[in-house]
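Bumping with the actual sequence this time:
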Amino acid sequence: MEYQGFTTFSAEAQAGVLRVTFDYPPVNIQGLPMLADLNMLAQKLEADKAIKVVLFQSAHPDIFVAHADTNFLKDMSSKACTRDEVQLLDLQVVLERISKLPQATIAKIEGYARGGGHEFALACDMRFAARGKARFMQMEVGMGILPCGGGASRMARQVGLGRALEIVLGARDFDADEAEAYGTINRAFDADEIGPYVDALAERIALWPSESINATKQAVYASVDLPIEAALREEAYWLYQATSQTPALKRFKWADEQGAQFDMKNQHIWPDMLVSIQDIKD
């Protein structure tokens, strides 16, 4: 699969990891060209099992992805509609498609991510931010609207109602350490530490079967909205999807026949042993 022809970012694949680098001067604005590129990227990724992880980053020294382009926001209808008439916005549709990708998605944030840029990061599976560089904000309420790319709904699921309302209604900048405390990102790192950590995480995840990565994502996302019994059934469903498509049973058989699970040495080296058994496929 070739990942070329984008106007707002470049994409480079290596060893199961696709590194997508936003580069849309002057400020990586989130406009129709970026949404079109993201939509085309998602279409390619949905059919590409060779890519296990998508890492989103930016070439701009100060900006990850800026807010949504006011050129299309200003053309919104000023008339209220009924619930029956309302349709999802292009931004919502595209970011939901990114959220549902079968690959693990990681946002490496080393600059401003405000408005739609922050909502894009929230649509990724994991977020890591650099201290002294990353800044987050939802400014929409102050403009007279509300976050409309998942910033209200995804943030509430991520951090809870009170904190989501504090972030959205406060409409102020907050930094990487605050974001970590809020729970909108996984972890904050010093600027020289974020790259090595995120690269190592992406490369490790890319070692695993694509089917088990996708199954895990589907089960975890389903659990957010379901009662516990229904969520457990969803876990069981995706378990069988994974075991029917991966070498899992061969690896369990190997562990049983070799007595590997009862070897105390192996209990000490599980992280490394997990990598070594990826060779067991047939």
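The tokens above came from a reply further down the thread. The domain at 9-205 is CATH 3.90.226.10 (2-enoyl-CoA Hydratase; Chain A, domain 1).
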